[in-house]
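The protein record now logged underneath.
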Amino acid sequence: MSAQPSTKFKQISLVGISLGSGLVLGMLAVVAIQNFNPPNNRTDYDFIQSDLQQDSIKNGDYDSSDNPVVVEKFEGIFKQRSTAEQYKVLYNTLSQSNEQELKEWWKQSKNVERASHRNIAQHVILHNLTAINPQQALRYVDEVSIFQSNALLTTVFSEWAVSHLEDAVKAAASLVDSRRIVALQAILESRDDLSASELRSIAMELEGEEILLKLTSDQLAAQSIEEPAKSWNIMLDDDVDNSLQKESFAKIAEAWREKDGFAVLSHIYTDLPNMRFELVRAIARVDLAGALDFTRTILDENEQKYIAMVIVNEWTRTDAQAALAAALTYTPASMASYLENSVASTWSYTNPNELIENIGSISEELRLGKLESAFWQIARKNPMEAIAKVNSVESYVGNTSSILDTIVFQWSYQEPAVAAEWVIKNFAKDDPQRHDLLENIMPRWARQDPVQAFELAIAQPARSEGIELDYWVIDEITSDGDVELAKKLLPRVKEKTRLHAYIKVGAAMIAESQTEEALELGKDFEDDQRRQYYQRVLNDLARNNPKNLFETLESLPSSSVQSLAAIQLVRVNRYQPLLTDEQIERVRVYINPEDEASDGSSGILFGN
């Protein structure tokens, strides 16, 4: 079936994983535990119940009518040798408790330190409380973590559906979408004694027809699991979105692999494009070498490349050197290179230190890129550790400057000022790499401390080429919206930065509706630079507020500026017509002959 879920059932996939685990815990308390002890035998429950009473008598607070709960008795219960015995003792203990006692048990269960013990206790408590007061049990579900609530919700509705089906359905209908789906599945699974029409009626009432279809499909597939191909086709051909059946497909795929080997990988690739990655990983993980060997027999090139890539990447996570060795034996050579690149990429971020230590085993043309990735990963946690390792790879790649760039760039996200201080201490003023490294730092530093970053930027020697550091500080300040600070710093920018910085700030001022002041800035320039400034700023104004520019044409500082503004208005209006034809004709009057001649050939101003 199509892999695109309907809007109505988007929530289903969010709760699918927890449904199964919740049902197991809940039903273990409901079904399996009941078979552990005949009711007439003296069990662990008897001793625990006796201890409860004896301790209370000694303390002088025992009242047979109240039967108080002693939280320390949880410790005795969870000293049982196995989870099954813990369930057994809890079930027998709580099955004879009244509502008030169960409420007390619930209250005390919150103090159980181990999460696994607390989960067991709360499942059994709610199972028993649901039989007495299901509404209260449902309210208690709201008190637990969202990571536990679905499992407890399953416990409540599994019991409730058996004892009072109609009430359970009504209660489920009042829940929000995701919880209603959990409740519905619990009801449907616990009441499989109902007819198909009754189950369908419940599913429709709770707006979960697809849940019922999924359960039905799962049951049919399970009945045919001895023939995995048949089960597979049942799942593919049903009316349930495939993405909602991921766990079922995974189980069938594993059964298929056990029966027929790794040929199932091809079926996964062909039939389930939206979940092929996860399923190929899961199936191949059982025998990565065997799975990779199977891919050598695949005839379709795209299928072979994809499945082999997923396998070697998964292998790299556990044994990168073995994965690399296997990849290099692949034929043809182009496929071996493809897989080697994939292994090296995965290796660089899953175990960067190991990759660095074994970089000689990677083809020379891949080394630098993979080392940059590996050092990036290390620098995320410890930049100085990454820097200390750079010399160890110099003999493998020669120039390590790009690796250092990568480290410092990552460092700048964490401690830009510290990174800048390290660069200044370790590189001479006239070293080109000093400027390159500081350029990597400036935007992040300007975001954190713009004034300090600017002071360091203007203190650096001018470059013979490229953009100066102070521009990057101004750029970041205006991007962050602090136009006033940018205006304050403008007079101190370097001459080489001046035009670019003014244009940046002028554009920001236009965006802040500081039009007159932005136009005034242009007066600080001479001739060609003034023209460049106004071209950029007026273009922004024409795009952002053409009517405002139209209204201020007459007040612009010179006829040349008026001409530039008119050109921008005509150009913009052809694509965003906000001015009338009459207004455009008035605008054209301001265009001087020189601008008309230089732009007329383009057809933008006067062409069709």
Summary: Residues 527-608 form one domain.
